[in-house]
Amino acid sequence: MSKAPTDRPLAPATRLVSGGRKPFDHYGFVNPPVFHGSTVLSATTEDFLKHTGRYVYGRRGNPTSEALETALNEISGAAGTVLTPSGLAAVTTALLSVVKPGDHILMTDSVYKPTRHFCDVFLKRMGVETTYYDPLIGAGIAVLLKPNTSVVFVESPGSQTMEIQDIPAIAAEAHKVGAAVMIDNTWATPLLFRAFEHGCDFDIQAATKYIVGHSDVMIGTVSANPTWWPKLKATHGDLGLCVGPDDIYLALRGLRTMGVRLKQHQENAKIVAEWLQARPEIERVLYPALPSDPGHALWKRDFLGASGLFSMVFKPVSNAAFARMVDGLEFFGIGASWGGFESLALPFDASSYRSATTWKVDGPTLRLHIGLEDPKDLIEDLARGFERLAGR
């Protein structure tokens, strides 16, 4: 890394490596130090009373957290970023930065299930009304907007069911009534979907997943544009949220290799998805990077790539046969998260948590995260699974 900063535009891969790093601020060590601490001393009474120091208290940040926040600002184009203890905490912090009692929000029907629960329970108790909408509505969302609509929340692709949303069209309508547009951008990260360039005001990530990349840290991030950054920063402080420095350090370490990992996740996922698409046991594969996917055209227009997460719908088969297939997989652990180096399988049924739309399929559904293993080995593992599915 150069000692002198450059003013020329940097490629995303370079920003991943250089963002938030100032080695010569700490004796030339490549990575930012891990600062453990609560108390921050002031040199004088005046400094303490006027908060003249760069840092005032451990909960409000330190050089370790600032390094990750700065890196994410540079990568996403945000005015500011806050860190939270989990991806769900990132979602709730973003929402609480905007909504107040009496407000109305529009939430995509394909949203991450815990986000739906937060709206239906916590925000409802707070006096905030939530209307769920068809993720494919596009500019038609205008008919659902109310004078008190304060947030339009998108998640593209949709959690588990993988619908791609027309975010620029949705954002254009939302902004006409002054609503903030928030995206859960965990699937793509700012590397593959430039949220602010497509009309979003908040970019939310479960950094637990691709930023960390090693399935060993819980952490969330919320980035905001200049309009909403002051409210986000204030709300984050008021909620008393902070993340331990060791977890932040691991997220920083993961961030540096996220670009190359995402490329490999995509390459592996496309190979496996194309193979699954040709299997007679599979009704359809839900992966926007496939030309056959209904959202492929929008994905190709707005996204810069795909990650390793997709779902598939089986043709009708007994629950016992489906369980035999999944339970016997060697390289696919059965787990609820994703984004790490390892492959995962998650059986799901989205029919019970849709309200604006109907999710109806004839066979079971399975979400796969394709990790960094050799795709040939993953395919062989799945092929043996299909043998068990058939009872052989």
Helix content: 25-40%
Share of β-strand residues: 15-25%
Strand order of the largest sheet: 1-7-6-5-4-2-3
User: What value does the average pLDDT take?
Assistant: 95
Question: What overall form do the CA principal axes indicate?
Answer: globular
Order of helices and strands: HHHEHEHEEHEHEEHHEHEHEEEH
Largest sheet, strands/sense/barrel = 7 strands, mixed
Distance between the termini: 57 Å
Essential attributes:
12 strands, seven-stranded mixed beta sheet, alpha/beta, 16% strand, five-stranded mixed beta sheet, single chain
Characterise this structure.
With 392 residues, the protein is α/β, with parallel strands linked by helices. It has 12 helices and 12 strands. The chain has helices at residues 12-18, 45-50, 63-76, 87-96, 113-125, 167-176, 189-192, 229-238, 245-277, 296-302, 319-327, 375-389, and strands at 80-84, 104-108, 129-133, 149-155, 180-184, 202-205, 220-224, 282-286, 309-314, 332-334, 343-348, 365-369. It has a 7-stranded mixed beta sheet with strand order 1-7-6-5-4-2-3, with helices on both faces. It has a 5-stranded mixed beta sheet with strand order 8-9-12-11-10, with helices on one face. The longest helix is centred in the middle third of the chain and has 33 residues, at 245-277. The model has no long low-confidence stretch (mean pLDDT 95).
Give a short synopsis of this structure.
By secondary structure, the chain is of the alpha/beta class. It is 35% helix and 16% strand. It contains 12 helices and 12 strands.
